[in-house]
Write a structure and sequence with these properties.
single chain, alpha/beta, Rossmann fold, 2 domains, three-stranded antiparallel sheet
């Protein structure tokens, strides 16, 4: 790992905020250090000063930088128990014009997972998904409704844990390429757009369901608190919100607006 000094990281982050309106100053320090070090290696920069110069002279590099800097790991039916816990609420509550927001959706595998489950309980037609992320490149992939063939065995196992059915392939076109595309009969209505949670602003909403898993972990506590409140503001009263199982949201100021539906699965309802 390329060694980077804390003060040069701060200078770099301030420049990014000033010149590109990208604010990572409240991301967790350890994660920023790791990611910047990796980006420098990938883009063959000796230090952050060189990276700054390259970003300033080539605006196209910004998309590449964001792609390298953000952690976009995702998978279908990630933490199967989460879907097992969420599904009963959705079966009961989803009705016409049910709006679902997935902030930090990365390449969209979570959305495909929920869409398949909702299709199975005949509720998908009522739902409209919006997937957002800071990283334009992963979102572009999400619009294709693809999953990678090399992961399908893992996804089938997770799917069978949630549903008891192993046959995930029934939902995907298989043209023997590296990607499998969601079949049209799963009528997923989804929009994808670039949105930065740190802006704490978005004209859309309110939503019936917000699923923001494994995103807040990259922020420091202050930013987690602010983004958490922003998400709660974007939720309808009675709406459901979910976070990642490793994400501790219990300290957040707006936490008292929620009631716990499932603590381990981090599923809550907005009550006030
Ligand atoms: C580890 S992935 C989580 C993907 C998915 N939610 C899951 O749990 O499988 C984290 C995602 O958060 C996105 N992200 C990071 N900072 C963000 C921000 N400020 N606004 C919106 N998305 C952000 C990253 O680009 C990345 O795609």
């Amino acid at each position: 790992m390329l060694p980077l000094k804390s003060d040069e990281i701060q200078v770099f982050l301030k420049g990014l905020k000033l010149n590109f309106s990208l604010d990572f100053t409240e991301y967790s320090e350890a994660s920023v250090h790791r990611r910047l070090s990796r980006v420098c290696e990938q883009l063959e920069c000796d230090d952050l000063e060189e990276l700054t110069q390259r970003l300033e002279s080539d605006t196209n590099l910004l998309i590449e930088f964001l792609d390298q800097f953000t952690v976009n790991v995702t998978e279908m039916f990630r933490d199967p128990f989460f879907f097992q816990k969420l599904l009963p609420f959705l079966e009961l509550e989803v009705k016409k014009d049910y709006c679902i927001w997935y902030p930090g959706c990365a390449s969209g595998e979570e959305i495909l997972s929920l869409a398949i489950l909702l299709h199975r309980v005949k509720k998908l037609n009522y739902c409209k998904f919006t997937g957002t992320d800071l990283n334009e490149k992963v979102l572009e992939r999400a619009t294709k409704k693809w999953v990678k063939r090399r992961h399908i065995a893992d996804y089938q196992r997770a799917f069978s844990q949630v549903t008891g059915d192993f046959d995930l392939l029934q939902y995907f076109e298989d043209d023997h390429s590296q990607e499998l595309r969601l079949k049209k009969f799963v009528e997923l209505k989804a929009d994808y757009e670039v949105h930065d949670l740190v802006s704490l602003y978005w004209e859309k909403g309110p939503f019936d369901l917000i699923v923001c898993r494994n995103v807040l972990i990259y922020f420091n506590k202050e930013l987690q608190d602010k983004v958490f409140s922003f998400l709660i503001d974007k939720l309808k009263i009675g709406g459901v919100i979910a976070f990642g199982s490793r994400e501790s949201v219990f300290f957040c100021k707006s936490y008292n607006q929620l009631e716990v539906l499932d603590r381990d699965a981090r599923i809550f309802r907005k009550i006030g």
